[in-house]
Structures are given as structure tokens and as C-alpha cells.
Design a protein that fits this description.
With about 400 residues, this protein is mostly beta strands. The protein has 1 helix and 31 strands. The protein has a 5-stranded mixed beta sheet, with no helix packed on it. It starts with a helix and ends with a strand.
Length: about 400
């Protein structure tokens, strides 16, 4: 009897030293269950996950890991702080560790807890994975073109195409720019192919300037593509992208004012206008000729003088009531003289804060539909929108 008592005391002391038994002889880590004990994580809706449940009698750092047949540990949770609770802790496990589905096989599910005093307690139960989805999710062939872009709506390098290939269907795909300080800038969804579908994808990114939003600040970013499939496999790829000269172009005809040369013009004479234009934004704006001062005849337009419309450029235009050109603002002028503009990569730009005077002339070579038609000026962002329309809408009498 005495020997048995001594043995019992020794066992109790050992258990206390191992941290398995708490006050009153109760284990402070207990009641581990893994149900069901076999899962088939293939997203068919049957036994895709198991419920791991355990009780914790004191605050501790808890790890959950799975030991395979070769003795390798696969951590699902590692030293996560957990407080004492009267209710059991429960977590669903679908066979995925670190974004990868564990291979089919038999594992030991281990719960290991370390309390504040350094005492360690652990429990384990078997888990069988059978019939798991054998195909890993991969993102291949990431392309970022061009690698440097200028989202400022000048018609040159305003957009970047982000392409990649999904090897299988994904339930979630996130594409975003990541700054060096951790800010995320989402990239719009692929408009051609359903998001997450297997195959090639392309995202068109303009930095948000098409909607009038300021793009991310100039600098180098990381383009990140993340995806996750139905069983929890995850994949991620990334590449660099640099933004330069980004911003929303902002130009105005100052005070919405245009001066006309005369209220009455005879057939064969020239009507001229003068206005002041200012770049009120933070980015250069592209423009092209003809230079201020050029005089059109009524049977000409900007195409006739070899200055066709070009996406992204700004020009001042002239239009009138009943024009027969078949287009709005058939007469257009550059924002400033050549010697006032800055050349960037061979193109002419009006720089931020710069103000210029634009003059233009129209020789009245045709009879107008009315004796006193309306004439007006406009500020055009070509192939984008008319920034200022019908400025100084004025009746001019044409004598013929």
C-alpha cells in the first residue's frame, strides 16, 4: 500500500512538472477531438473539412501541427496566444497548410500548448486525408507591359496591361499595386474573361485617371497577383511597375473669356479671337499645332493642314452655327507657340502653372446659314472630352 502511494505521488509530481495536470489534478489541456477523422478536401461538399476541438484550462501559446509518416511537421497554427476559456476552442481544417493542400496520407494532429511558466502540454489524434484535389493552383506567365507608364491622359504610355495565366479555376483573385510603405492600390477586374476562370487574363490599368482620380504617386511599385482555389490552395506572383509623371491633367481658358476681333465681319475678311490658357494641374499637358496665329479658311479644317486629331492632346477650337465641316470644332490651335512649350520625348507640352495666349483666325470665305450666326471657342482634350464647351457664345454679323 505504501509503495503504491509513493508511486502515485511520483507520477503526480512528474505530471505537474510536464504541465499536463493543473490544480485539483485536472489536465489544463484536454478533450482533443478531430471529427471526422478522415477528410477528402476536393470541394465536393462532403467531408471537405474536419473540426478540431480542445479545451484549455489556462492561458497559453497554442500550436496545431500535423506530423506526416516521415516525421515532418506541418504547422497550421504556431504559438498563437489563447486565453483560458470555459468553452472549448474549435477550428475548421480543410487540409491546407501555408496555402498548399497536404498530400493524401495519415497524419497525427498535435495540439501543443506552452503556458506563461514555460510548462508544455500536448495531445494528438490521427487524421486521414484521402481523395484530396491533386492539382495545385499556379499563376504563370506574369507580364507587365509597359514596365514604366505615365498615367496622365496625354495619349502616350497612359495604360499598363497586367497579364497572367491561371492553371485552374480560382474562387478568389486579387490584383493590386503595393507601395514600399505597404499601401495597396487595386487593379480593375479583367473585362474580357470571368475573374478566377482558368486560362489567360489581362487587366487594363490606368491608375484611375480615366475617372478623374489621382493615380498613385510617382515611384516604383510591386504588382501582386494573388489567387485561392476552392480547397484553399493559394498562389502569388509579383513584378515591378514604375509610375512617372502621373496625375490628372487640368487646363482652363482663364475666366472663360474670349475676345473677338469685331462684331461685324464682311465676306472675305478674317474673324480672329484671343484667349488665355493656363495649366492649373500638376502634370504637363501635350499639345500640337498649328501654332497660335494661324488663319484657316472656311473650307479647311485641322486635317487639311496636316494636324489630325490625336488622342490625349489639348487644343483650343473654334466653331460656329451651321458649320458644314461635319465635325465639332473643325478649326484648332496649339496651346502656345513652339518657343513657349517644353519638348519631352519629342512631344510639345504646356507645363504645370504655365499660362499662354492663344490667338486664331477664320477667313470668312462662304456665306453662312444666317446673317448673324453664333461663334464660340472651346478647349478640347482630344479623344477624351470637351473640357470647356461654347465659351463666349457670341453672335457675329456676316455682311454679304
Amino acid at each position: 500500500m505504501r509503495v503504491s502511494l509513493v508511486r502515485g505521488l511520483v507520477v503526480a509530481v512528474l505530471l505537474l512538472q510536464l504541465g499536463v495536470v493543473g490544480c485539483g489534478g485536472r489536465a489544463w489541456l484536454s478533450d482533443l477531438t478531430v471529427h471526422p477523422a478522415q477528410i477528402s478536401p476536393n470541394a465536393d461538399g462532403r467531408d471537405d473539412v474536419t473540426l478540431i476541438s480542445y479545451r484549455l484550462g489556462r492561458s497559453a501559446r497554442v500550436s496545431i501541427y500535423f506530423v506526416d509518416a516521415a516525421g515532418n511537421r506541418h504547422y497550421f497554427r504556431k504559438e498563437s496566444p489563447r486565453a483560458y476559456s470555459r468553452e472549448p476552442y474549435q477550428v475548421l481544417f480543410g487540409g491546407t497548410v501555408d496555402g498548399r493542400l497536404l498530400p493524401d496520407g495519415t497524419y497525427s494532429c498535435v495540439i501543443e500548448a506552452i503556458d506563461h511558466a514555460g510548462n508544455v502540454a500536448s495531445l494528438e489524434q490521427p487524421l486521414r486525408i484521402e481523395g484530396g484535389d491533386p492539382e495545385a493552383l499556379r499563376i504563370e506567365n506574369l507580364s507587365i507591359s509597359p514596365p514604366v507608364f505615365t498615367p496622365n491622359r496625354d495619349g502616350i504610355g497612359d495604360r499598363v496591361t497586367i497579364g497572367y495565366y491561371l492553371t485552374k479555376e480560382a474562387t478568389r483573385v486579387d490584383v493590386y499595386l503595393l507601395s514600399k510603405t505597404g499601401e495597396r492600390y487595386p487593379v480593375p477586374e479583367d473585362k474580357i474573361r470571368k475573374m478566377g476562370s482558368a486560362g489567360s487574363h489581362q487587366h487594363d490599368y490606368d491608375g484611375g485617371v480615366d475617372l478623374g482620380a489621382q493615380p498613385p504617386a510617382d515611384g516604383t511599385y510591386t504588382v501582386v497577383v494573388e489567387a485561392e482555389d476552392a480547397v484553399g490552395n493559394k498562389a502569388q506572383v509579383s513584378g515591378p511597375l514604375t509610375i512617372v509623371n502621373g496625375g490628372v491633367p487640368q487646363v482652363e481658358i482663364v475666366n472663360s473669356a474670349v475676345e473677338w476681333s469685331a462684331p461685324i465681319v464682311r465676306l472675305g475678311d478674317t474673324l480672329t479671337f484671343t484667349c488665355t490658357v493656363r495649366n492649373t494641374g500638376t502634370v504637363p499637358v501635350r499639345t500640337k499645332g498649328p501654332e497660335p496665329g494661324y488663319v484657316y479658311s472656311m473650307d479647311e479644317n485641322f486635317n487639311a493642314v496636316d494636324m489630325p486629331e490625336e488622342p490625349g492632346i489639348f487644343r483650343v477650337g473654334l466653331d460656329y452655327e451651321g458649320n458644314s465641316a461635319g465635325r465639332t470644332y473643325p478649326f484648332r490651335w496649339q496651346l502656345g507657340r513652339d518657343d513657349e512649350l517644353t519638348i519631352i520625348d519629342g512631344e510639345k507640352y504646356l507645363m504645370p502653372g504655365q499660362t499662354v495666349t492663344v490667338t486664331g483666325g477664320l477667313r470668312i470665305t462662304q456665306k453662312t446659314v444666317r446673317v448673324a450666326p453664333y461663334f464660340w471657342a472651346g478647349l478640347i482634350h482630344e479623344s477624351v472630352w470637351i473640357v470647356m464647351d461654347r465659351v463666349e457664345n457670341t453672335q457675329i454679323t456676316i455682311e454679304f
